[in-house]
Design goal:
Length: 421
């Protein structure tokens, strides 16, 4: 517990950071997968309508069998996606799921989200990429319009809600994962699988850039999926295209592989942010024999991330569920990230799979690594500052200033004072 002195100089315990405070402050979620964030009742209803059989038709049953508090490993964690994707194949389904996701975040005082997903998992004949993205946008926009038109926002008592869409490419996929992926294998029958994956990622980013130019809020490009054996460098052409067309870039890196994966994301993919970055500090995971001093290599990598203010999208609960070597948030490298004054944004990853939300993630970090109020404030603001905001830089700065004002007012209300810059 942080201590401060009263006017007579006597040390006194300060008010702790409570869940009530974390619930009220404006928050972001920069690493938020659409297909991992459904409401269970919606999943059950959509599956029933589509005549898709689930392991259970009750929320309690699905929590016990599929969407658990703890998973045995990453494959166990990923099982649920096989149940979810079949109910995300029509414009109506995508719009509803996106609307409910935005609605849930708005209710929790999350005021900026970036929803990411792989549109090629939904594309099929009669349902092109543009409509896949537009369907999600319609849902998000409908929730935003309802909130932003409220009296509280209009009178300045609440902040408006903003959002962006990140289109994801996959490091690895199979023909069975979607008809779109199957088509890539059909038209490239003699190509190496890695070349097929690279071709698909280039198509994804080209579509994303084109849709952004049409006015849809596609704010970024991401690469997700298995790191080991599927290097991000294979997708350099896609990231070059994103950079040449002013599209921001994030890469899942350092989640299941070491510091070299993060370096490759920065050097070959021009990453503006890193998804997870969990093994950033693990010099023992450096495998390149040409790196003579792994500790020095990691030190330079950390320093580069710090100096360039590369925001790390950290998802503590998800990491604990998929990385057995990390047994608690107290052991999570987020502690070192904060101690090294890196730009850290705490995210949910998959609200359904991890039974979580931004406030819950922040609460775990505050409690288990003992964040100071200043550190918490820096983390919250890093989310807004690191956002791939769809508006202009001037508009983004205005939002950040409003967040700072709102945050300070809530600090005074809860703690009796506000952290100064």
């Amino acid at each position: 517990m942080v201590r401060r002195k009263n006017r007579k100089g006597i040390a006194m315990a300060s008010t702790p950071i409570t869940r009530a405070f974390l619930d009220q402050i404006p928050k972001t979620d920069l690493h938020l997968h659409l297909d991992g964030s459904l409401r269970i009742p919606t999943l059950i209803e959509l599956a029933r309508e589509a005549k898709i059989r689930l392991p259970s038709e009750t929320e309690e049953g699905l929590r016990e069998l599929v969407f658990k508090e703890q998973y045995t490993d990453l494959p166990d964690y990923l099982k649920g996606f096989a149940l979810i994707l079949p109910v995300m194949q029509t414009p109506e389904q995508l719009e509803r799921i996106a609307y409910e996701l935005a609605e849930d975040n708005i209710r929790e005082n999350v005021r900026y989200i970036e929803v990411r997903y792989a549109p090629q998992q939904h594309v099929r004949e009669g349902f092109p990429m543009r409509e896949v993205v537009a369907s999600v946008d319609r849902g998000l926009a409908r929730a935003a319009k309802a909130h932003n038109g409220s009296a509280a926002v209009k009178e300045g008592r609440d902040l408006p809600f903003h959002y962006g869409i990140i289109v994801c490419a996959m490091r690895f996929f199979t023909p069975q994962m979607s008809s779109c992926y199957a088509e890539f294998f059909r038209v490239m029958p003699y190509a190496r699988p890695r070349d097929v994956f690279a071709a698909a990622s280039l198509e994804t980013v080209r579509a994303g850039v084109a849709l952004a130019e049409e006015g849809l809020p596609v704010v970024g490009f991401d690469l997700a999926g298995a790191e080991y054996g599927y290097p991000a460098g294979d997708h350099k052409a896609a990231f070059d295209h994103a950079q040449m067309h002013f599209m921001r870039r994030t890469v899942h890196a350092g989640e299941a592989f070491g510091p070299e994966s993060i370096f490759q994301a920065l050097a070959q993919c021009h990453a503006d942010r890193i998804g997870h970055g969990t093994f950033l500090f693990d010099a023992d995971k450096v495998t390149d024999p040409s790196i003579a001093d792994p500790e020095e290599y990691v030190g330079k990598l950390v320093d580069t991330i710090a100096k360039r203010r590369i925001t790390l999208e950290v998802c503590p609960t998800s990491n604990l569920q998929t990385i057995p070597s990390i047994r608690s948030v107290a052991e999570h490298p987020v502690r070192k990230m904060v101690e090294n004054e890196l730009s850290v944004s705490i995210c949910s990853d998959n609200r359904l799979m991890s039974t979580t939300c931004p406030a819950k993630e922040l609460e775990k970090v505050c409690t288990e690594i003992g964040l100071t109020r200043r550190q918490l404030r820096n983390i919250v603001l890093a989310g807004f500052k690191g956002a791939f905001f769809p508006g202009s830089y001037k508009e983004k700065r205005a939002l950040v200033r409003e967040v700072i004002k709102r945050y300070a007012a809530l600090e005074v209300e809860h703690f009796g004072d506000a952290i100064l810059v």
